Give the backbone structure.
Amino acid sequence: MGHKTCFHCGLDSSSSEIIFDEKSFCCNGCKTVYEIFSVNDLTCYYDLQQAPGATPKDIEVKYNFLENAKIIEQLLEFDDGETQVISLYIPHIHCSSCIWILENLNRLNPAVSSSIVNFGKKNVRVTYNSETLSLKNLVTLLSSIGYEPFISLDDYSIGKKHIDRSLIYKLGVAGFAFGNVMFLSFPEYFQVGEFWLEQYKHLFRWLMFFFSLPVVFYSAQDYFVSAFKGLQSKILNIDVPIALGVVVLFIRSTTEIIFDVGSGFFDSLTGLIFFLLLGKFFQQKTYTFLSFERDYKSYFPIGITKISSEGNEESIQVYDIKKGDRLLIRNEELIPVDCILIKGKARIDYSFVTGESKTVSKQSGDKLFAGGKQLEGSIEVDVLKTVEQSYLTQLWSNDVFKKNKELSFTNITNSISKRFTMAILLIAFLATAYWLIFDSSKAINVFTSVLIIACPCAIALSAPFTFGNILRILGKKKFYLKNASVIEQLAKINTIIFDKTGTITANKETSISYEGSQLSIDEESLLKNTLRGSNHPLSRSLYQLLNEHDIVSLDYFEEHLGKGIEAVYNNRKIKIGSAPFIGFTSNTTTLNTTVHISSNNKYKGTFTFYNKYRKGLSKLFNNLKNNYDLVILSGDNEGEKANLKKLLPTKTKLIFNQKPEDKLEYIKYHQTEGAKVLMIGDGLNDAGALAQSDVGIAISENVNVFSPACDAILDASKFDQLHHYIKISKSAIKIIKWSFLLSFLYNIIGLYFAITGQLAPVVAAILMPLSSISIVAFTTIATNIIGRKLD
Amino acid sequence: MSVIYILLAISIVVAVGFFIAFIMAVKKGQYDDSYTPSVRMLFEDEIVKEKPNKTILTKKD
């Protein structure tokens, strides 16, 4: 059988026999999407990018909550009764084909009047006529072509979000003024005593004054605010000397033109602020499609089905759930509240909450906790607690989630700024004192000159440009940082704590071993054919493992929920499932997941599922062991302890059975002992630990989907590169220290002019941009060199 | 030489004009998404391929 891939989604399609239009598809879903596109003449979707699609999922009832007017009202950006506008987050957006098809939605449904994709944010803004197309139908339409929007409790008031564009405005104003002032002050640089220039220089100077007004009072206001706040809390942050420099520059320049003693330093003033804002803008690189602030709200659905006392189904908001309500939880739905199981069999995946990968079976009357995902059929439950009071959500009332990590530590620039500011003030006063004795007419000139030339523009630029560039380099390597301060924190780390399930193990892959008597060819063929009919995740992984066999149609097949499968073919009976189901009493209790097999009521053997560890795990730990304390902190049982001991360096601490709060407390305790903790986790159960640690990294197989609140998101495929990333952050700190040294050199040159009382505007106008630009060039080149070492 | 007043006035008017254009562009959200438009402009050619007699089919039962 030749290897074929699905024309729509690119998955392997050699085992399916779906051929349409001479193209092969992996499933009917993909074929249907192709049909829709080809009938509507939208096939250039496939010309732009090969196999761009995603398999559509069956979602008929999933979006029933979009019929609830109150929920719709919260989601919409605009609504005048007829035209509605909504922004939908679609994780699948990944290529130009996606943009093309989503912007041509009106050809699939004419009620859509416009749809605009924002690729960076992975969302689409759809304007549609609500009289002919309801929101639910729009979402269903998107899902049917494989672009299922992700709507969570987080979106609840999305329509009212305000975009902050003030930095762009400030930068624009500063740039505009800088250019014009530079232009107007040009004649004065050459000090030509030309008659007409003499005539008009007053006009030029006053024009410069007016251009610099918005720069000082609007563009620079953040620096004044920050300096003021710093002084209030008795911290000499870097914005103090900057604000001081700006004020002195402005006052001295203004007095100079009023008393006609000189042309002032308006060019340096506007240039300074322009460069500073440019640095800020550069550092402000954010990954708009990632969210670092997620809490349980991003996981939870907005609506849920309530069964009224008359037995009618009704979609209600999650926040409207009251104690005592009867809810219907469908297959694959998340349980939003603590409740009691009333009807149906529950098989719940609690990996979000506990990190434990094994699913739990529950009988009616058992208590279910919020955050679990139902995996088998639908169940009915009675609500015990509301959303805010449920077990899982209470984790978020812990204080760590309110603390702002960024504010609680002194960054490298501010720690140098304290000594720098002191030194500058000292020099300024000493120089003034000297001139007061020898030539008091120059004293005030020298005092202001020192403050002007010492304005730490280059120092303030070092960190933003270095970190901004590092942020970009790491982003390209699929390590996404929340902001620049994470790099500094990362460089200080001395303890690394790993979660187990999903962090050092791969979520999707398991390794399976078989113990027992050898299966005959017939038995193996029957086993494979039986597993083919089952959708249970364990059946699927086992099916993948077994050798290829001819497809036969079974005489009898039955799947017993939560127990196992039974099948008959040619008078041979096979039973696959849990030990009690096949009538085998296991004498060795193993903590790992097992599947037992019996053939013709005779016990054959056991398949044991082991976690598969990520590629390069031992290598990574060996690379890290010399410099860091390593800990594995797992919510799982001890089933893997022996296995892990073999894999990891001997000094790695292994701690099991940790609840989310235990993990948080463990980190807190070690921090009080001076540990700088890097926590690497994946699930909601690590959320507390990620927030408490100095740096919390969430590891994710698909960065677009889920990750708890954290400081950085690491793509799972780059897990074995972690030690390189930590090394880079250390090099970044080194680069910054070197560029501080460089800018001190410029300051010494500048101070020479200032102290000797010969600081002319043209010197300032050359020295300031020169120092800033050379710092930017130095940091950019240096970071690119260390970035190149990464591959 | 008083013509310089006129020249200055003109140059400032032009500069302010561009400045206002910039502010308006920011306000309209042109700087919010700096990637998608670069892809979108390449689509123009494909969309012309449209046939006029197509029927509209949506996946609704």
Notes: The mean pLDDT of chain B is 73. Residues 3-48 of chain B form one domain. The first helix of chain B runs from residue 3 to 27.
